[in-house]
Automatic annotation (TrEMBL):
Family recorded in the similarity comment: Belongs to the peptidase S1 family. CLIP subfamily.
Species annotation: Polypedilum vanderplanki
InterPro entries referenced in this protein's UniProt entry, alphabetically: Peptidase_S1_PA, Peptidase_S1_PA_chymotrypsin, Peptidase_S1A, Trypsin_dom, TRYPSIN_HIS
Pfam family, one: Trypsin
Position of the signal peptide: 1-19
Name of this chain's protein: Peptidase S1 domain-containing protein
SUPFAM superfamilies: Trypsin-like serine proteases
The keyword Ribonucleoprotein is annotated on this UniProt entry: no
């Protein structure tokens, strides 16, 4: 082997074998691309690549779901996005995208996926509606492609304002067009007891599996499904607390239901999967505690 080739081979081998759930220091999670902070923008269209963790899932024929990048190989999405698709391995993800029709981003195919271990499909909804997808190769991070931070275990966000973003339908009518450009909206997390009462006619509210959030006249909608429910923390970093799961139409009185990320079992599932798929996370300045948390759980080289 040529000397230079050998060096490259050794470097890539070392990089590969060391990708086992470390915290990468060359990247950091939850950094949005906020231009002209404070300027009032009309409408709800997000500026280009504002939320670089947003990902879009396509079947060979159509746009399917949203998702969010959480490590250098993994995307978090809704369980039903994977469960009900005919051939999961024929789907692909577009990252760093702005325009859903143009698919103007980087395309990644699927290597592996994992439904939440407690995912359960009922006739009108799904419980623990979360799945993790591993792309082939390593995601190349840049300004437009970066991961979001994850919430810590057992955190309560009742009353707090959150953001939902996606390429979902623009209104509640049956033939409403999917959004071409990423749309965003704000909702408030409701107290679990209110959720239980308000959704009781459709589902059994499970506080370990679900978050519910609502805002009159605005909501996540089909096509936003799988995308994150997230907020900007005190240190200007964004963290995900939920995954868009289902609602009853869009922006009616029924609250939006989200897969809950702060549940301890869900956190363990995500972290174990990150390790199992040899993927690394980016540093998380807001949660210095997280590295200890990983360590305690797995006793591995985070
Ligand atoms: C759950 O999903 C399976 C496979 O798609 C389906 O056959 C079954 O009817 C679903 N169960 C319910 C209650 O919808």
């Amino acid at each position: 082997m040529h000397f230079l080739q050998r060096i490259i081979f050794i470097i890539s081998f070392v990089t590969w074998t060391h990708a086992t759930g470390k915290i990468r220091s060359d990247c950091s999670c939850g950094e949005a691309n906020i231009i002209n902070r404070g300027r009032i923008v009309n409408g709800k269209e997000a500026t280009k690549n504002k939320y670089p963790w947003l990902a879009a899932m396509y079947t060979p024929t159509e746009f399917m779901c949203g998702g969010s990048i959480i490590s250098d190989r993994n995307i978090l999405t809704a369980g039903h996005c994977i469960f009900y698709v005919d051939k999961p391995f024929s789907t692909y993800w577009v990252l760093g995208m702005h325009n859903q029709v143009l698919q103007d981003g980087d395309r990644y195919y699927i290597d592996h996926y994992s439904l939440h271990p407690k995912f359960h499909n009922f006739s009108v909804y799904d419980e623990y509606d979360m799945a993790l997808v591993t792309v082939r190769g390593i995601i190349r991070f840049n300004r437009n492609i970066r991961p979001i931070c994850l919430t810590l275990p057992n955190t309560d966000y009742t009353g707090k304002q959150m953001t939902v973003a996606g390429w979902g339908r623009l209104d509640d009518s049956k033939d409403a067009k999917m959004g071409t450009i990423l749309q965003e909206t704000n909702v408030h997390v409701k107290p679990p007891n209110d959720c239980a009462i308000e959704v009781a006619r459709l589902v059994r509210y499970n506080d370990e599996a679900m978050i519910c959030a609502h805002e009159k006249g605005t909501d996540s909608c089909s096509g936003d499904l799988g995308g994150p429910l997230f907020f900007e923390s005190d240190v200007n970093r964004y963290e995900a607390i939920g995954v868009v799961s289902f609602g009853d139409g869009c922006a009616r009185d029924f609250p939006g239901i989200y897969g809950k990320l702060s549940d301890m079992q869900t956190q363990l599932w995500i972290k174990q999967y990150i390790v199992d798929t040899n993927s690394d996370i980016c540093s998380d300045p807001a949660h210095k505690i997280q590295s200890n948390y990983f360590n305690d759980v797995f006793k591995i080289n985070f």
